[in-house]
Specification:
The protein is mostly helical. The chain contains nine helices and no strands.
């Protein structure tokens, strides 16, 4: 039974959250980054199936249909098994469904997948996001030492990201 406290952007006051309540707030920054890294509108008829599935998965996440999002990201990964955006989406789907072990595995795959991309600002953001979400998932699993390592890794790509800084500090206090 892990209880974590994550920064709530909507409130200046911090409070403890766990389980499903925490799941809804922890990965909100994820949707914003995922939205900016995926298509802003549906891909054209000639686009790869993975892109269409990624777009539909993103829409399902935004709508709160986490099982539908899982299905779409899984289908997209059948066409492109190393796409870090699809892996991040699948990881968030698992996280939101409370399937933390599966989420951790997928976030690890996403981080490894991004490592193979030529370093640039987009790859750095994806890498930080994968490590940040992995850290959040590991906190849920009570694996605090591993969570701290993930947050520290995320800070290498995004050293001034307050969400990462706050969650790292919290994990160190647990």
């Amino acid at each position: 039974a892990s209880i974590s406290r994550m920064r709530n952007k909507d409130s200046k006051n911090r409070r403890h959250r766990s389980g499903a309540e925490n799941s809804a707030a922890v990965l909100i920054p994820f949707i914003t980054v995922l939205s900016s890294t995926m298509l802003a509108s549906p891909p054209d008829a000639f686009a790869r199936d993975a892109e269409q599935d990624g777009f539909q998965g993103k829409q399902a996440l935004i709508a709160g249909d986490f099982a539908g999002a899982e299905r779409m990201f899984t289908e997209g990964l059948a066409a492109d098994s190393a796409d870090p955006r699809l892996l991040l989406g699948l990881g968030e789907s698992y996280y939101r469904l409370g399937r933390f072990n599966e989420a951790a595995d997928v976030f690890k795959r996403a981080a490894e997948s991004v490592s193979k991309i030529k370093p640039d600002s987009a790859a750095g953001s994806l890498r930080a996001l994968a490590q940040y979400n992995l850290g959040n998932t590991l906190v849920q699993l009570g694996k605090l030492k591993e969570a701290i390592i993930s947050y520290e890794s995320a800070l290498k790509s995004r050293p001034r990201d307050q969400e990462i800084i706050d969650n790292l500090a919290y994990a160190r206090r647990l």
